[in-house]
Specification:
The chain has 423 residues and is of the alpha+beta class. Helices cover 16% and strands 26% of the residues. The strands form seven sheets. Strands 6, 7, 8, 13, 14, 16, 17 and 22 form an eight-stranded mixed sheet that branches. The radius of gyration is 22 Å and the shape is globular. The protein starts with 27 loop residues before the first strand and ends with a strand. The structure holds manganese (II) ion. The site of manganese (II) ion has 6 residues, from loops.
């Protein structure tokens, strides 16, 4: 077992019972305050551990990190040091903050410099995302979409069970939770007989996804196997892949998503290290079509992460519209990374690979409004009585996720963005 995952560990920093951030989590992010410049932090309870301060105070002397790695607007510096180094850093923090350790505990002057209340900090986009890939790996989602738009009897295209379908998206329009964006405009073709029209998207949607961030990969021409993939995954975050369904439907043939997707995607600010999920690994769904040898894998590669989506209209309360789970993914992250690199494609430190919409088997577990409202034919009723087929202007969409067993809860916090009217 990874020592920092030990469920019996307790911290001398108070952590409330339902916190997403116990000492067994220790997710990485980047924050600033009114006084402090952007820097790397780790969440613990309601606090952020300021790694720049701890480095300056001499608590990381035997670790392979420099001041620049922590005094940074992005996590890329520490990510680029690789898995062994970031694992040592997490273990060091685990030791430093556990109840029976007195190196930092009780040194009030040092504690004051290195613990910042989360409520006093602003979280920033954690990673300078080099490349962004989005997969389409939920069989329930692919089946629902195929049923609605093509043929219920042949919902999955012939390639779907043979490879994890994906596309390259736009990295630089990924925003962090708390940032809002404007409703996209574009071409739509609401009536088959009529020519296309232009205007604000009427069918703006969320996609409930998870994303993983990579360590530096291999040289061009090399590939990463399913067995090796765990060593190239730094951690995971929540991912909302905003989608304009009307723009998508008209533009996507034959090359796939373009303007329907590239206007914005939102991520949660804390990257939970892959190591923290070890207690929550489970078997994935049975893959009932035999895959080619490079996609075969062994071990438990799915993760049991409970996911939830809420819609909050302006000046109103939140309504939960979806409850799903990352465990439903047909293709796991190891297979996605193996497939991504099997042609010799490189992977950078700080690439983001998103799962695709995570739908479960029941109608309340569908990960998009397209599916939840079944293309607008079954409007959802929110707590305030309002109906939604898709997302309205000034609606805030909030996604949350956590793992939980008898002893430990490992969470992500949330990813939250408001849809502003078209510019
Ligand atoms: Mn997507």
């Amino acid at each position: 077992m990874i020592a920092a995952n030990n469920p019996s560990l307790k911290s001398w920093v108070e952590v409330k019972e339902n916190s997403d951030f116990p000492i067994q989590n220790l997710p990485f992010g980047v924050f600033k305050t009114e006084q402090l410049s952007p820097r790397v932090g780790v969440a613990l309870g309601e606090y952020i551990i300021d790694l720049k301060s701890l480095h300056i105070l001499g608590y990381f002397t035997n670790l392979p990190f420099t001041l620049d790695d922590f005094n940074s607007e992005y996590l890329n510096g520490i990510i680029n040091k690789g898995k062994i180094a970031t694992r040592e850093l997490r273990e060091r923090l685990s030791v430093l903050f556990q109840l029976d350790n007195n190196e930092l505990q009780g040194k009030d002057h040092h504690v004051k410099q290195s613990l910042i209340k989360q409520e006093n900090a602003q979280m920033l986009l954690p990673v300078d995302i080099r490349d962004y890939t989005d997969f389409y790996s939920s069989i329930e989602h692919a089946t629902n979409v195929g049923t609605m738009f093509r043929d219920p009897n042949n919902a999955l295209l012939p390639n779907w069970k043979h490879l994890p379908v994906g596309y390259h998206g736009r990295a630089s329009s990924i925003i962090v939770s708390g940032e809002n964006f404007h409703r996209p405009k574009g071409q739509q073709k609401p009536n088959d007989q009529d020519p296309p029209v232009f205007g604000p998207s009427k069918l703006l949607d969320f996609e409930l996804e998870m994303a993983f961030i990579t360590y530096p990969g291999k040289e061009l021409g090399d590939n990463i196997t399913t067995d090796e993939a765990d060593d190239y995954i730094f951690g995971l975050c929540l991912f909302n892949d905003w989608s304009a369904r009307d723009i998508q439907k008209w533009e996507y043939i034959p090359l796939g998503p373009f303007l329907a997707k590239n206007f914005a995607s939102s991520v949660s600010p804390w990257i939970v290290p892959l190591d923290a999920f070890e207690p929550f690994r489970i078997d994935g769904p049975v893959q009932d079509v035999k895959v080619l040898p490079y996609l075969e894998y062994s071990g438990k590669k799915n993760i049991d992460i409970e996911l939830q989506v809420s819609i909050q209209p302006e000046n109103s309360e939140e309504s939960v519209v979806c409850e799903s789970n990352f465990k439903y993914m047909y293709w796991n992250m190891n297979q996605q990374l193996a497939h991504h690199t099997i042609n010799g494609c490189n992977i950078n430190g700080g690439d983001m690979l998103a799962s695709g919409t995570i739908s479960g088997p029941t109608p309340d577990s569908y990960g998009s409004m397209l599916e939840l409202s079944w293309r607008g034919s079954k409007p959802l009723t929110l707590k305030d009585g309002a109906e939604r087929k898709f997302i309205n202007d000034n609606d805030t969409v909030i996604m949350r996720g956590h793992c939980k067993n008898e002893t430990t809860r490992i969470g992500f916090g949330e990813v939250k963005s408001k849809v502003l009217p078209t510019k």
